[in-house]
Specification:
Distance between the termini: 25 Å
Strand content: 15-25%
Number of helices: 25
Mean pLDDT: 81
CATH architecture of the largest domain: Orthogonal Bundle
Largest sheet: 4 strands, antiparallel
Helix content: 40-55%
Radius of gyration: 37 Å
Strand order of the largest sheet: 14-3-16-15
Structural class: alpha+beta
Low-confidence stretches: 1-44, 642-647
Shape: extended
Number of domains: 4
């Protein structure tokens, strides 16, 4: 769960969040959602971070936290603000804001300049700002910014800031030099070999034991989050499809005739020829070959005799052949009768000798023969035009501040309302129902919106279908009442009691092993009835060679002292592992060039990130950073109140 932020938390290189910003910005806009940009340009409200005199206020941090949550929701749908904060999201947002400001200040003081032309070029390359013609669309640009409540100045400031970060950090991250002396101890660790034992103390629910009402209520209160239904939203929408205009679209004869004419050669009679050709650079040689061919020698034979190669062009059209040679050559080739020898005719390529080996003529297709095809084509075009027209009207209405009801009424659309659904378009009150794929896109837009946001247009599929979407209401995350899920809570309580009992047994086993008792005997003394004890005898290098995810008990075994035992929780509430280490054989990589070389490569992949972090820390000391710890704690607590489970 929450893989995105766990990767960040486990890494010491959170500064790299900043380095990837430009890519994140482009991806976010490509998804029609500006997820990583916020209010820039001065503090609003209480100052929480100050960098070299520039203040970042509460409003900006709050906005950035919300936008960051929206971004993470694309991977962890259904995640609410408390879960985001618990995974370290708030600290990541603060680090990103602070690092980007520090690097911007350092870059400016060092004489760097991200010009307006450069920033505008970055903006013009963002997919969400492109129109149907693949070029920058001012209308799409303004609509995308308005949907996320961002001004063009704020966008430009953020892109410039992240550009400075990339310029400063990218060269440092690319550093990967590691000395043999540094790699040697890590390489020796790879060769270290350990022996140990792993036993499972299973959690076995105690029959039909039932908790008292007080015990059950207390357990429910302590584990309230487990029974919480995630935040849900009611979304209003109206779908517009090309088919909706089918009945009102009529195709006139004049339109068919215009389409037939616009098709050009597609339906017209066509003449194609099979041409045998040789191209000669010297005119005298060309005249001699032409004379031989006219005298009955095959084009190929005459060409080979002169050390050249002839080519045959099948189904050639005059226009196409002209592009391969020249207009004069093509005109001469298509003027000759079948069997005629043309040339030499000069082109930029040389002198062409051509024999007309065959002539084919197609009658073409009259309008009556392709009427149905053209009718369908014109109808599709007119439906698309109608679709684009209504999209433009809705877009204008949104820009003018029209409400969802007004927009739907003006365009005579059918308004619909979803039940209270999760971000995945699931209905917790009807879990058996499969989500509508189209609703999933609509709900994604609904979860990106906030109360009071303007309606937005959302593309659905590839055929031009879209929807106008507006947030109806937000149903905060809340725990289901105990009386409605009593049986499930009782079952969970039983599993917890079994887990607690198993932990007592595991602790007793560890205590006995610590007194010198063998693991098998310690298990018997504690009354453990579990699977057979597993013996492990392996080196780190052998585990690495298997390229598998290291089981947690084995990983723990490589972080323990000889003769000790430790307890580790088993997955899925299955009980507890007891892990022991019986022997450790140190490794020595001296002289083992292969191991040292691979270790250097592995360390080299992270050393640049370490340098980047240290570079940023040095810039912080030089520029000067101050944090309002009390204000930040208050804001985090306030954010944690969004979506807290309630009765």
């Amino acid at each position: 769960m929450l893989k995105f932020f766990r990767r960040i938390i486990k890494s010491r290189f959170g500064v790299l969040f900043t380095l990837a910003a430009l890519a994140i910005i482009a991806i976010s806009f490509g998804l029609a959602d500006i997820n990583n940009l916020g209010q820039s340009g001065g503090a609003t409200g209480t100052t929480l971070i100050e960098v070299d005199g520039d203040a970042v206020g509460e409003a900006e941090i709050r906005q950035r936290a919300r936008l960051a949550l929206d971004a993470v929701r694309q991977e962890q749908q259904g995640l609410d603000m408390p879960g985001f904060l618990a995974a370290g999201g708030f600290e990541s947002v603060l680090g990103r804001v602070e690092n980007s400001l520090v690097l911007e200040k350092f870059a400016e003081e060092s004489g760097m300049l991200a010009s307006k032309a450069f920033v505008d070029g970055q903006i013009a390359s963002i997919p969400a700002f492109l129109g149907f013609d693949g070029k920058f669309s001012q209308q799409n640009f303004e609509r995308a910014l308005a949907s996320r409540q961002i001004t063009p100045e704020q966008l430009r400031a953020d892109i410039a800031r992240e550009t400075y970060a990339q310029w400063l950090i990218a060269p440092t991250v690319g550093t990967s030099q590691v000395a043999d002396q540094l790699a040697l101890p890590y390489a020796s660790l790879l060769l270290e070999k350990r022996k140990g034992q792993i036993a499972l103390v299973p959690a076995q629910p105690a029959g039909n034991a039932n908790p008292s009402d007080q015990q059950l209520s207390s357990y429910y209160a302590d584990n309230r989050q487990r029974y919480t239904v995630p935040e849900r939203r009611v979304v209003r929408y109206a779908v517009v499809t090309p088919e909706a205009f089918a009945a009102q679209v009529q195709v006139a004869d004049a339109e068919l005739q215009a389409a037939y004419k616009a098709a050009g050669d597609k339906y017209a009679p066509t003449a194609t020829r099979t041409l045998e050709q040789v191209i000669v650079a010297d005119q005298a040689l060309a005249n001699r070959i032409a004379g031989q061919v006219k005298g009955g020698t095959a084009v190929g034979a005459a060409a080979r005799a002169a050390g050249l190669e002839a080519t045959t062009i099948s189904n050639a059209k005059q226009s196409e052949f002209a592009t391969q040679s020249s207009a004069d050559v093509a005109r001469a080739a298509f003027a000759g009768q079948q069997g005629a020898v043309v040339g030499p005719v000069r082109s930029p390529l040389g002198f062409h000798i051509i024999k007309v080996a065959g002539i084919s003529q197609s009658a073409g297709q009259p309008l009556a023969a392709v009427r149905d095809e053209l009718t369908a084509e014109v109808r599709r075009r007119k439906e698309t035009e109608a679709l684009v027209a209504i999209q433009g009207k809705l877009d204008t209405g949104i820009s003018d501040g029209a409400t969802f009801d007004e927009l739907v009424a003006d365009q005579k659309l059918k308004a619909e309302t979803t039940p209270a659904l999760t971000a995945q378009a699931l209905n917790p009150d009807a879990p058996q129902q499969q989500p509508d794929p189209r609703l999933a896109q609509i709900m994604e837009a609904g979860f990106a919106a906030e109360d009071g946001d303007a309606p937005q247009l959302v593309a659905l599929g590839n055929e031009g279908t879209f929807a106008i979407v507006a947030l109806g209401r937000i149903v905060p995350a809340a725990a289901r009442p105990l009386q409605t899920i009593r049986e499930a809570v009782v079952a969970d309580w039983r599993r917890q009691q079994a887990k607690l009992a198993a932990r007592k047994q595991a602790d007793a086993v560890v205590a006995n092993v610590g007194r010198g008792t063998g693991l098998q005997q310690a298990l018997g003394a504690a009354g453990v009835n579990g699977p057979a004890v597993q013996t492990v005898d392996v080196s780190r290098a052998e585990l690495a060679a298997r390229r598998i995810q290291l089981p947690p008990p084995v990983a723990l075994m490589f972080n323990m002292k000889r003769g000790t035992a430790k307890v580790l929780e088993a997955p899925n509430n299955g009980g507890w592992f007891v892990v022991t280490v019986t022997d450790i054989t140190p490794g020595d990589a001296k002289g083992n060039e292969g191991v040292i070389r691979s270790t250097r490569a592995g360390l080299g992949s992270v050393v640049g990130r370490e340098y980047a972090e240290q570079f940023t820390n040095a810039a912080k000391k030089l520029v000067g950073v101050e944090r309002n710890a009390a204000g930040l704690a208050k804001l985090k607590a306030d954010l944690a109140g969004q979506g807290v489970a309630a009765e």
